[in-house]
Amino acid sequence: MSALKDTRCAVLGAGGFLGTTLCQRLRGQTAALRAFGRRQSFPDALRGIEWLTGDFADIQHVKEAIRGCDTVFHLANATTPASANQDKIADLQSNVASTLGLLDACRDLGIKRIIFISSGGTIYGLPKQVPTPESAPTMPITAYGISKLSIEKYLALYEYLHGIEYRVLRVANPFGPYQTAIKSQGAIAAFMQRCLDDAPLQIWGDGSVVRDYIYADDVIDALIQAVKHEGTSRVFNVGAGHGRSLLDIIQAIESVSGRSLAVEFLPKRDMDVPCSVLDTSLAAQELGWHAKTPFPEGIRQTWAWISNRHLIKHHS
Known about the structure:
There is one protein chain. By secondary structure, the chain is α/β, with parallel strands linked by helices. It has a single domain, classed as Rossmann fold, CATH 3.40.50. Helix content is 42%, strand content 17%. It has 11 helices and 13 strands. It has helices at residues 2-5, 17-26, 59-66, 81-86, 88-109, 143-162, 187-196, 216-228, 246-257, 281-287, 295-315, and strands at 8-12, 32-37, 50-53, 71-74, 113-119, 165-171, 173-175, 201-204, 210-211, 213-215, 235-238, 244-245, 263-266. A 7-stranded parallel beta sheet has the order 3-2-1-4-5-6-11, sandwiched between helices. Helix 2 (17-26) links the parallel strand 1 and strand 2. Helix 2 (17-26) crosses helix 8 (216-228). The longest helix has 22 residues, at 88-109. The protein is globular and about 55 Å long. It starts with a helix and ends with a helix.
């Protein structure tokens, strides 16, 4: 943690799931910490942290958020894989064009390093090699993955042209406390919420789609390791390295909740890659990072958080 003590950090997209979790971990560990986003999903969780409300698409808001910092965590993201495909131009403008504005601001304000959350689940498209290493071809089959890849390329360009260091974490499918089902992203949070609401789960396809689910605390460990990384690599896969199908997820939730879940199977979607599991050996080698939280333990902690929140909401 010593490298953090002298670091002045800005977290963009701090009101979301991973942003909230990251800010909680950084609280009191850095020389300065500023959180920025459109809204705080969990204000209590960010109490005592300097918060700026703003729009990532507004360059003046962004400049205010990063001014005086040396390290920027870029977690801001306006779309999901499904919504990005529906309006590709809006996805490009809200994510790629806004990030270019951020990069220009970083250049002008002397930011030293940007740490960007990319998408391990969409960037490789239909991988020929599973688990998939960083060296695999990047052929996204969603607009979301294309935007993430574009941002990675622009980060490399700005390091080349202006010396702004960057690290990219291609994160698999994160889950944990503070993830909600609002954005329709995150099967575990969505399924747990429907379980609590006694509503049937909806699955696109037959439930055999396999993903690499990683607990949020482990993702935060990787983000923090990326602050002080000095090696030559810039892009790291961050996942558990194990695949689990949607049917496996349902079984895990039934086990932790003691409930039986009703499932509605819907037609499969073209945007859903059949199997995505990441090879994380580069992160182990260069960041000294590996996922530590056993999947059942992550499920247990997530269920405890989401069911407690459900209880509070229904008694208030």
